[in-house]
User: Which sequence fits this backbone?
């Protein structure tokens, strides 16, 4: 699948997801609880926001502004963005970036370095960077040189609003930005009186509250091999974030290279996982963990579940066609060739 087809697939998936989540919401009745929907293009993603409850329309308007604000702030390739300034000046004063770097540091520690926002120089080498760089397989010497500048110890937080970076290290918040955006939007919506919402950020989903009838939302989980969907998850008040090696990739000499980089080796992660879905009450953890789990692999990810003070569930797809899931309310798809296994 090339990038364009992949985008198309993501859009089709977004529609599929809406198809599964919206009818019950849209059917919630007229008047105060009627569902409101808005489509936003931010973070290179078509996003669909649906909310019901008091002030839903006005709240969605603010949500849209917040998504644009964060997009402009966190985009590494946009001249003048806070992340751009950090990467060029080695210093930035910005509360959101400072907070995200603080969270990224904690997540990096918790995942044994699998999540590391300083992988930016490696992303550039492989052509998954901020510019229109060519995809190519770098030489071992290039990878070794880039690895010299990778590591969270190069990032320093200065008070609550500042951050410094040991240049030429570079930061990329692509593995955490959507989760943070979804988390912020959920806080904003609930503060405005919205009692239930589904935010579909291109297949990453946030569920605020439950359906108007009090039951759980039903979310279709993406099939990394392009099939309809892996299964249906019943969930409320949670973030369902998926990372997959199929999202951005290229092929060279019959080998497959993707955009989730193992910060230890400098090469695309080779953990045996095709995709990782993380279900968590915290949007930042959910997003970052989904990326980290693709690096860590199934065994380490499942072990982390017991070790972390943050609760989360996993749906993992292995390269050999197994689906390992820890969630209670997950209905596996049928006839798609996967072997499903509930694990703890
Ligand atoms: P996601 O789609 O949330 O898995 O994020 C993938 C993006 O995260 C990539 O496009 C990179 O911008 C960034 N990234 C890649 N590898 C890592 C890593 N090991 N740790 C943190 N961010 C990463
Ligand atoms: Mg992520």
Assistant:
């Amino acid at each position: 699948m090339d990038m364009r087809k992949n985008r198309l697939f993501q859009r089709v998936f977004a529609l599929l997801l809406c198809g599964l989540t919206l009818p019950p919401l849209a059917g919630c009745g007229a008047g105060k609880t009627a569902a409101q929907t808005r489509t936003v293009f931010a973070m290179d993603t078509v996003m669909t926001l649906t909310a019901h409850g008091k002030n839903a329309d006005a709240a969605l308007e603010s949500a849209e502004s917040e998504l644009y604000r964060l997009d402009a702030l966190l985009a590494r390739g946009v001249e003048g963005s806070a992340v751009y300034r950090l990467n060029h000046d080695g210093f930035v004063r910005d509360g959101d970036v400072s907070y995200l770097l603080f969270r990224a540091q904690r997540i990096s520690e918790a995942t044994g370095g699998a999540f590391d926002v300083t992988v930016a120089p490696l992303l550039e080498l492989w052509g998954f960077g901020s510019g229109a760089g060519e995809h190519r397989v770098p030489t071992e010497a290039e990878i070794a040189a880039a690895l010299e500048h990778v590591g969270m110890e190069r990032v320093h937080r200065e008070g609550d609003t500042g951050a410094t970076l040991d240049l030429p290290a570079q930061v990329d918040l692509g593995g955490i930005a959507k989760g943070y955006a979804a988390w912020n939007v959920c806080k904003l919506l609930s503060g405005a009186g919205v009692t239930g919402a589904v935010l579909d950020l291109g297949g990453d989903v946030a569920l605020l509250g439950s359906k108007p009838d009090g039951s759980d939302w039903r979310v279709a989980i993406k099939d990394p091999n392009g099939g309809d969907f892996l299964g249906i998850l019943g969930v409320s008040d949670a973030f369902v974030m998926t990372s997959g090696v199929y999202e951005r990739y290229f092929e060279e000499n019959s080998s497959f290279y993707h955009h989730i980089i193992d910060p230890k080796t400098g090469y695309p992660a080779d953990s045996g996982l095709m995709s990782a879905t993380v279900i968590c009450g915290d949007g930042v953890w959910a997003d970052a963990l989904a990326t980290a789990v693709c690096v860590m692999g199934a065994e380490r990810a499942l072990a982390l579940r017991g070790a972390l003070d943050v609760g989360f569930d996993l749906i993992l797809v292995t390269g050999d066609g197994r689906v390992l899931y820890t969630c209670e309310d997950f209905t596996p798809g049928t006839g798609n060739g996967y072997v499903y296994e509930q694990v703890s």
User: Anything to note?
Assistant: The chain is about 35% helix and 25% strand. The pocket of magnesium ion (ligand 2) is lined by residues 175, 241, 243, 287-288, 290-291 (CB under 6 Å). Confidence is low (pLDDT under 50) at residues 1-32.
